[in-house]
Specification:
The structure holds two protein chains of two kinds. By secondary structure, chain A is of the alpha/beta class. Chain A is built from eight helices and 18 strands. Chain A folds into four domains: 36 residues, no CATH class; 97 residues, Elongation Factor Tu (Ef-tu), domain 3; 104 residues, Rossmann fold (3-Layer(aba) Sandwich), CATH 3.40.50.80; 82 residues, Beta-grasp domain (Ubiquitin-like (UB roll), Roll), CATH 3.10.20. Chain B is globular, with a radius of gyration of 18 Å. The chains are: A alpha/beta, B mainly alpha.
Chain lengths: 364, 293
């Protein structure tokens, strides 16, 4: 490896002398480069990203008021499915093209089927209504995953916790149900506080009935809105808490757990927050392509559709992986990592934007 | 890792950690100044090294069509990028403010890692591809060691040496993420066609280089530390060995055993460390927890 750069100064500042250490490293790397340059290299295997088509095997009504439906998905050939562990979710691609993410709530030891449960939310994006209306037994659906952003670290197998405490709010019970199944199968001591508006809307009450010693059900209509203390009843320092539910509930639990030393708090790690106060603008790529960026989407999000290999990672403006050189235009920076010196020429395309109707020219 | 410890693959996500270095003493393991400087020496290398990992992965990502490999790479890059930035702050907000000037060492680290990337850019297309695979194999070799070190620090009783809690959390958070993503670089290099000989040659270069540069960095830090005598290399190595016997550093024997494990044709990074333990640590690390809020 030859270099046109000037060698850096000696470690102990001995004038303009070259540092033997640096010279040796460069010489060794250069020699190795020549030695291995004759090795053959094949490109990475090309893989068609088509997802996996599953069949809706059966549907079950999971709450008294009918707002939650359970779906059991199987492989069309009846064969085993990829393994999964409690906390995992599937990306489900609905016939309309919408994608929704649902936690697996069955028994992870059953290799032949996946179970998800979906609460119908009218007035939302329509995904849950589509699941309720269209995914009848026999229908097929494309999925990706399973993938686990909420892994369970069982006591005695990596965690030093003595017992597990689960906190579930409403449909947040789905990943917790799979965790409860694992805890039971391993004889781990556990408890669950399960909250919701009213008993009729809570899914899986019948399945949980057999664990009545472990489960406390709190509904707003009978018990009022629960406090952190009731959500964490019985939790002691050194336990592990797994919480899945609406953001205010998670925030309350987090604040309370922080006061307990050596106590684990596990929550699902979700994808990025929606764009706030964005305007529509235009991006021009190095090859001249023009791309419209709508007010409610990030540059990264739009570019990934056609170019899944665009470098990125956190999607929240803190890791810097998606930083791109700005060749023209004025970015509106929303990152938390680039310095003022970097800002005129660089931007993070996962969060930073531009003023309405303007154009950014990016080195991409 | 036993079957009970197997919690399956974990979706990798970077964590937006922030550390406050005010009030953390230079000898953050008070009774073990040389061991402290060995770990500080690693910190001198990390920003330049991990930035090279990210830039190499960006280059490789363009070639990857496998969605699982791509997703793992995306998680890996973000974690490594945050490690680089976090350790870079340690250089300036911690070492520099405690009278240790990291500039001469950092200039050399930047030079060496920069030269690796710059040389690749000048190569014609087929040679550049081979060079990319070599760099991926080099990264996989180093990541074998970072997983071993991550597993060590998650299990080490740093508190018995009076370790500062913020510094202990920094290296355990980092170590836990190294354990969490330990398979990624090996899988990526394999995906790009890394062969067995290439794997081991690049490992020897990477881990040997890591060892030499850490010892060199330790001597550099000890030399700059006004409270310590100006040890030569034999004394630095003797002090390191002594710290290892106390458990303040991983032992030579365990490092040698880890190198031999990497030789095994059936080697898999899965056996280096326990994902469940890393997950449990990240769920109680004060910094990783604050990053979630």
């Amino acid at each position: 490896m030859s270099t046109t750069q000037d060698l850096p100064p000696h470690l102990y500042g001995r004038g303009n002398r070259h540092d033997m250490g640096v010279t040796l490293v460069i010489a060794a790397a250069s020699a190795l480069g020549r030695l291995t340059s004759h090795l053959s290299a094949r490109g990475p295997e090309r893989v068609e990203d088509a997802g996996r088509v599953l069949t809706v095997e059966r549907r079950t009504r999971e709450s008294l008021d009918g707002s939650v439906v359970g779906l059991v998905l199987t492989s069309p050939d009846g064969g085993p499915l990829p393994r999964w562990w409690p906390g995992a979710h599937l990306d489900v691609y609905l016939p309309s093209g919408a994608m929704r993410t649902y936690s697996l709530c069955g028994d992870h030891r059953d290799r032949n089927e996946y179970r998800i449960a979906v609460r119908r939310i009218d007035g939302g994006g329509g995904g849950s209504a589509e699941v309720h209306d269209v995914l009848q037994p026999g229908a097929t659906v494309t999925v990706r995953g399973p993938r686990n952003a909420f892994p369970l670290a069982p006591p005695g197998a990596g965690s030093t916790a003595r017992r597990l405490h689960f906190v579930a709010g409403g449909i947040g019970i789905t990943p917790i149900l799979a965790m409860v199944t694992l805890a039971e199968s391993r004889g781990i001591d556990w408890s669950l506080v399960y909250t919701g508006r009213d008993a009729a809307s809570l899914p899986f009450l019948d399945e949980l009935a057999r664990y009545e010693d472990h489960v406390t059900v709190l509904t707003d209509d009978r018990h009022g809105v629960p406090t952190a203390a009731t959500l964490l009843a019985g939790v002691e320092a050194g336990d592990a808490v797994y919480c899945c539910g609406p953001p205010p509930m998670i925030a309350a639990v987090r604040a309370a757990v922080r006061a307990l030393p050596e106590t684990e708090l596990h929550v699902e790690r979700f994808s990025p927050a929606p764009v706030v106060d964005g305007a529509a603008f235009e991006v021009q790529l190095a090859d001249g392509t023009l791309v419209d960026i709508p007010a409610d989407r990030s540059v990264l999000d739009v570019l990934r559709e056609g170019r899944p290999q665009v470098a990125h990672s956190c999607q929240q403006g803190f890791c810097g992986t998606c930083s791109v050189r700005v060749l023209a235009g004025e970015p509106e920076h929303r990152d938390t990592i680039l310095t003022d010196e970097q800002h005129p020429d660089e931007m993070l395309i996962c969060v930073s934007r531009a003023a309405a109707g303007t154009r950014l020219v990016l080195d991409l | 890792m036993t079957a009970l410890q197997d919690i399956g693959p974990v979706a990798l996500r970077p964590r937006d950690v922030q550390f406050d270095w005010d009030g953390v003493p230079l000898h953050w393991m008070p009774g073990e100044p040389v061991a402290t400087h060995v770990i500080n020496a690693l910190n001198l290398l990390l920003p330049a090294g991990e930035r090279m990992f990210v830039s190499t992965f960006k280059e490789a990502l363009a070639e990857v069509t496998d969605p699982e490999v791509r997703e793992a790479m995306i998680g890996f890059m973000g974690q490594e990028a945050v490690h680089a930035e976090t350790h870079d702050k340690v250089l300036w907000q911690f070492l520099d403010r405690r009278g240790i000037d990291p500039r001469p060492y950092v200039a050399q680290a930047d030079f060496i890692f920069g030269a690796i990337g710059a040389a690749a850019k000048r190569l014609p297309a087929p040679a550049r591809y081979r060079n990319l695979v070599e760099r991926l194999a080099f990264i996989a070799g180093i990541e074998h060691f970072t997983a071993v070190l991550g597993d060590w620090i998650l299990n080490a009783d740093l508190e018995s040496f009076g370790a500062d809690p913020t510094m202990a959390d920094l290296f355990r958070w980092h170590g836990a993420e190294e354990v969490e993503h330990r398979s990624v670089s090996f899988d990526v290099a394999t995906h790009f066609g890394m062969g067995y000989v290439q794997r081991y040659v690049m490992f020897v270069l990477g881990s040997g280089g890591l060892l030499v540069t850490v010892v060199r960095g330790t001597k550099f830090l000890v030399h700059q530390d006004p409270t310590l005598p100006n040890y030569g290399y034999p004394r630095v190595l003797a002090e390191m060995t002594r710290a290892m016997s106390h458990g303040a550093l991983p032992k030579w024997r365990s490092l040698a055993a880890a190198s031999i494990r990497y030789l095994r044709p059936d080697y898999t990074p899965e056996v280096e460390g326990n994902t469940a333990q890393a997950t449990a640590y990240l769920a109680k690390s004060p910094t990783a927890q604050a990053a979630l809020a």
